[in-house]
Amino acid sequence: MSNYPNCPQCNSEYTYENGSLFVCPECGHEWTLDSEAENNDDNKVIKDANGNVLNDGDSVAVIKDLKVKGSSLVVKIGTKVKNIRLVDGDHDIDCKIDGFGAMKLKSEFVKKI
Prior knowledge:
Largest sheet: 3 strands, antiparallel
Family: Belongs to the YjdM family.
Strand order of the largest sheet: 1-2-3
Pfam families: YjdM (PF03831), Zn_Ribbon_YjdM (PF08274)
Domain Protein YjdM N-terminal: 4-32
Protein name: Alkylphosphonate utilization protein
Shape: elongated
CATH topology of the largest domain: SH3 type barrels
Oligomer: single chain
CATH class of the largest domain: Mainly Beta
InterPro entries: YjdM, YjdM_C, YjdM_N
């Protein structure tokens, strides 16, 4: 008996091969080994506006005046942010800015310092 991979959705061991696809008879999920390898790639690389790779704990500077949603405050160009934390989502930097508090920023509006 061939060893087929377990279903990535329901973890069923009763998968079978149908042409170039693997099929799960329990949940109906279909996938290829290539798509499974892409889904397991959790090492998403986040880059700043200049293309430098960002890491947790880096310091960055804001490259554009940013309006704070729901407030009349503005984060000014050149504001330095220390000890960033990278997160998943549209706003991929979680940080604390002096005078503003906890914020989420997009990596495209910062540069590594």
